[in-house]
């Protein structure tokens, strides 16, 4: 019987080691989240902004001039109820066509997940943090309304009952009462979006859609002639936004 020479043995161990490394790399994958936008099925990009071309559920014609919103705490829930939370948050800026895609540095194992979720805005704990990048983009909320950060800034114009263009500022924040030194918070208005059960077999790209029209129609038909500005200190309006936001996002597809 021939003996295995030391050089051949080292070569053999090297091959085995490389094979094991490749297996490890395959078992941990990266995820990307792409955000696209539509108005009841018609695609919307920033090239559609600044023109009266949309009609909401209340029959008001309107334009979009600015749309940006925050997503955070993307979470994969395993079949054993373990939660894998991805690092980071993303300020989706449709107006400037920036951050429409977000890739996390956190790797996750391949396999089956009972749910994938993300938070619209920040939850209360994260909202109490200090984020220099968000501070520099005028994303903060005044201290008299509880501080923290916006969830969404959605601005435009609409044709009012006098058929005159009028501005609206549909800004979502944490609902606050009693503006001043000691505001109170009637209920949470961030919300979690469920993308459902998924099976991950390779690097995955989640294609997520926002139906902008939903902000105005379900379950609350939004009347822009009544609710158009000064909505941040209006906790009732913030709760209506929270309710309408439940059906805004959907998972279009997953590319693997």
From TrEMBL:
Keywords recorded for this protein, A-Z: Signal
InterPro entries per record: MbnP-like_dom
Positions of the Copper-binding protein MbnP-like domain: 31-224
Source superkingdom: Bacteria
Signal peptide: 1-19
Pfam families: MbnP (PF20243)
Designated name of the protein: Copper-binding protein MbnP-like domain-containing protein
Organism: Algibacter marinivivus
